[in-house]
Amino acid sequence: MRVLTGMSNIMIILVALASGCSAEENLAVSETQSISDDQAVAALVRGNNEFALNLYEEVCKIQESDNIFFSPYSISSALGMTYDGARGQTAVDMAEVLHFTLPVEAVNRAFHSLTETMSSGDLSGAESGDPFTLSISNGLWVQDGFNLLDEYVAEVTRYYSAGVRNLNFIDDPEGSRETINEWVAESTMNRILDLIPPGVLKEDTRVVLTNAVYFKASWRNQFDEHFTKDATFFLTDGSAIEVPMMNQTDYFNYSSTEGCSAIELDYAAGKASMLILLPDGDIQEFQQDFNADKLGTIRRRLSSCNVSLSMPKFEFTRSLQLSQILRTLGMESAFGSGADFSGFTGSPDLFISEVLHKAFVKVDEEGTEAAAATAVVMGLTAMPAQPVEMNINRPFMFFILDRETGSIVFMGRVMDPSA
């Protein structure tokens, strides 16, 4: 198997198990030749971002007061590989939940183009100290002797660059688990460990699809460590804690609109940025009506401004079990005995057993490091104006965005920087 290094902070794993159900025709496919790569990528990014915010809303319901971090792109990519083999109502349900609005071939092509646009290559850049690394990799793990259709293998290999490897889930499920977890660790610079817990892979496991993302980038305008001081951060319950706060004054894209202050911090090479949203009031209320349209409005209203910025350093790892969340969003048919993934083998003998996700993020004076895995991120000539103050001293949302496409690679929420 060709092991590809992957972008940091989140990995999702889909485990497909043997089942029995009837096969139907695949989701209707229209002519795709007339859909350009640019059109397909734009449609995919819109859909992925809508799915990201739907997923964030559901995660917030489960983790009401906790820090949140995940990679929507990693999740969408792993589920995209799975969607390629879905048929009938299962394909319809997956497309609706994932906001895939294109025929499956165009979705695959768009994922390929988008990954090539965003990715900087493999992990060698991070290992050599390059200021920007975004590495994305996929894997297809199959029970030895369990035959997948050549067409399916060809498509995930071509469009997702997925390395294909046989394992013995039947006789050695724990050894198989360790092998996949080692791939995840290697693909995320050892930031994502033990993605698949003991007991998840069983004797009836037949297919596991994995995606790994690794991101490490320096700020374009780095913070001076000498200006980092302990300061107060206010929690939602009214209490306060002391945390290390980084400080700098410079020109950033900034706006005060839609009930929040927003600031965009560019990474080196200009390929990605972090967008931070600091709600004017309670973050729980702000999240209730936050959607892709509002995110787009905030981004369009950003403009260069002299900002005196204070923000906390933070580092944490979060795990998500996504199966129930995806069912709640409408993907129920993919998990039961009526699932139709006959595009994998030619017969409806697979269903999704688990969708696991784990992500890591570290933000400090130099920049950001993030990793994820999934198994199934103007100059002015006049005198500087008095800087606007933006003190990020209370809970906030943040996004790591691809600058060219607007794709949400990672997103999260910081309720307590010390947690």
Helix-strand pattern: EHEHHHHEHEHEEEEEHHEEHHEEEEE
CA-based gyration radius: 21 Å
Query: What is the helical fraction, as a range of percent?
Result: 25-40%
The first-level CATH class of the largest domain is given as Alpha Beta
Let me know the largest β-sheet: 9 strands, mixed
Number of helices: 11
In total, the number of strands is 16
Overall domain count? 2
Which overall shape is indicated by the principal axes computed on the Cα atoms?
globular
**CATH fold-level topology of the largest domain:** Antithrombin, Chain I, domain 2
Query: Mean pLDDT, as a whole number?
Result: 87
| Contiguous uncertain segments of 5+ residues | 1-30, 377-383
CATH-defined architecture of the largest domain: 2-Layer Sandwich
CATH superfamily of the largest domain: Antithrombin, subunit I, domain 2
Secondary-structure class: alpha+beta
